[in-house]
Amino acid sequence: MATRIQFENSCEVGVFSKLTNAYCLVAIGGSENFYSAFEAELADVIPVVKTSIAGTRIIGRLCAGNKNGLLLPHTTTDQELQHLRNSLPDQVVVQRIEERLSALGNCIACNDHVALTHPDLDRETEELIADVLGVEVFRQTIAGNILVGSYCAFSNRGGLVHPHTSIEDLDELSTLLQVPLVAGTVNRGSEVIAAGMTVNDWTAFCGSDTTATELSVVESVFKLREAQPSSIVDEMRKSLIDSYV
Amino acid sequence: MELGASGMFVPAQTVGTVLCCICGVTMAPNPTNMCVRCLRSRVDITEGLPRHGAVVHCPECRSYLHPPRTWVRADLESKELLVFCLRRLKPLTRHVRLVHAEFVWTEPHSKRLRLKLRVQRETVHGAILEQSHLVELTVHDQLCPACSRAQANPDQWSAAVQLRQHVAHRRTFFFLEQLILRHGAAIRALRISEADRGLDFFFGSRSHAVKFVEFISGVVPVRSRSDKQLVSHDPKSNIYNYKHTFSVEICPICREDLVCLPPKVAQALGNLGPLVICTKISDSVALLDPFTLRSAFLDASQYWRAPFKALLSSRQLVEYIVLDIEVESSEVTVGGSRYSLAYAQVARLSDFGKNDNIFTVRTHLGQLLNPGDYALGYDLYGANSGDLEIDLPDVVLIKKSYEEKRRNRSGKARPWKLKSLNMDVDNTSKGRADEEKRNIEYEEFLRDLEENPELRFNISLYRNKDYQPSEMASTAGGDDVPSMPLEDLLADLELSDGEEENDDAGSMME
Questions:
Q1: Could you give the ipTM of this predicted complex?
Q2: Would you list the domain boundaries of chain A?
């Protein structure tokens, strides 16, 4: 199911967090509310790690990862790298890569099987991605935008892309990714999907400005309604309540 | 296969649909990703635009005030009024773009003007929203300064032109009336009234009067003087209000007048025989010596330096019948007309058949006259020469007469008619006799117009709707009575507002 949260009054939760099937990274905020929201959902299932990357809080946009690995930009400090290596499970390969485009979260969108990358990414980086994340890499654009990591968010069950994507593009991407895709918005009409939400196979977190319509689209395309974490049976479902009058 | 701008293959791009983020209805994606109705309900681009306004309107002249001082004439719900209202609502255009404007109908007596405007403005996310906006303007009635002045004193004139000609007939004034109508010289006149030997024109401002006086001096030889009378004066701002009067005297010599030139003038003109005929009056006097075919022109200023009166004028023309013509000299063209000297034997029509009074005279009409024709001339048979040491001729023929032929067509309506000026006629004293005289003179004037194409040059003639061309063949024989070529007549355009000239008929010259 999808939850609406805020990071320090900002609705761009995808900027300050990274959610995968094996772990969750959260930025260090002034209050603990953001972290508690993730903890409440995921505590028993996957580790929720508080971190910074390159001394910044925009960790969601700087790193890219799935259950197999995590890629970090060259600006990551050694302490951060070590902290992450310690906190994450052993099967997750943490790798710092030398790449000119250092905002890896904006350049790479991936699930556990397929990744879409920025068309100008280095050849070596592409190979590293295929190696570390264990995915098939495709260079693509979304609705004419080259920052694929920002304008689409997809998991193993479904994906949400930029609203101006044409039908032909949608079909093509869907074929590549092998998941159903839908064009839509989050955070009350914002087109930057991945910055406004973060998602894995059984849960999603959206900015608090997300309208009920958008939330229902998210829930239906990512198939979150029946989704349960693999080891926990959750009977109670939070009902959707509009938070503003 | 579609080719893009660079000639490369571009795959077809069909736009998909997304859900409106507020209401969930499917729609094509737009920069805000909200459907139009949600957008309209959330964003109001007409916020801050004026919804009410006031305009000032003068009910007399139906014009609207554009502060601080300009009054714009406009009808209700007209284009001019729309432009005027939009100009008054100028602050509107600062933030939004105006796409369309129109009037919403209101009752004329409601004193409200409703405008429906369509405005466009860019909202957040770059989407351009178009919305319609109603503005209501309240109309306040207030007399504009011109109308209030007119209301206070409707007959207030500040300049008058008194046009006078000291002759016994009104031919000049008929002619002038037509000229004035044609050129519209008196449209600014507040009032025109008829006086004993002339006309009075009243104007609202001195400059209009001056313009009129200049027009008159361009068509007839005049001398004028102007005077002014102080009406009021504001000592603080040094404003003086005057009434100006222009006294314009027209030269008493008319066409076809017989003039005896004073010796000084005759000498100045190169010893032109003292008896001369005036052939044409424009801004100068054209004189023709009928016995030598010499002509001279007298400028207005030249004439007034040594003014002289006419000896005999066209009221004293007598009809003669031409018995014989003997052309003496060859044809000469003087001032556009052809003359040739001839000896003619004529007899007065009153004498003809009764006695044998025959006069042999020299005439300048050798060109025109044939034996058996009728001519009009001045009878000098019994005249005393007085101080002049010249031989007075017995008769001076002036023009050919069509009187007989006219009698055949008497009573027929003319195919053309003239318009007349709107005058206040002084009906008090003169009475019946004068009116008779006037009608006769007018009839002669119309005949003059028929006979002389050059007179018609500056006059507008209108087609007479009541005229039916005669079905009988005209009694031909000799030359026909000269008449107006019908193509030259202007059709009187009748519109609902009044009559207007149709200028397609062009110039009047044949």
A1: 0.77
A2: 2-235
B182: exposed, middle or buried (Cβ count in 10 Å: 0-12, 13-18, 19+): middle
In chain B, the residue whose alpha carbon lies closest to the alpha carbon of A171 is B16
Question: pTM of the full predicted structure?
Answer: 0.52
Could you give the CA distance from residue B210 to residue B216 in angstroms, rounded to a whole number? 10
Helices (H) and strands (E) in chain B, counts: 9, 31
Chain B CB within 8 Å of residue A242 CB: no
**Nearest chain A residue to B25, by CA:** A213
Report d(CA B152, CA B172) in Å as an integer.
37
d(CA B501, CA B508): 14
Q: Which residues of B146-167 are buried (b: 16+ CB within 10 A; e: fewer)?
A: ebeebeeeeeebbbbbbbbbeb
Nearest alpha carbon to residue A9 among A181, A180, A209: A209
CB-based burial of residue A126 (10 Å sphere; 0-12 exposed, 13-18 middle, 19+ buried)?
A: middle
The pLDDT tens digits of the residues spanning B248-307 come to 999 999 888 899 888 888 888 888 878 899 988 888 898 988 888 888 898 999 899 999
- CATH assignment of A2-235, given 2.60.40.1730, 3.40.50.300, 1.20.1090.10, 3.75.10.10? 3.75.10.10
Please tell me if residue A211 touches chain B, with a CB cutoff of 8 Å. Answer: yes
Look up residue B128 and give its two tokens: 């351009």
Yes or no: say if B459 and B446 are a contact pair by the CB < 8 Å rule. no
CA pseudo-torsion sign B291, B292, B294, B298: negative
Helix (H) or strand (E) holding B249: strand B239-250
CB B58 within 8 A of CB B74: no
Give B34→chain A minimum CA distance, Å: 7
B23 touches chain A (CB under 8 A): yes
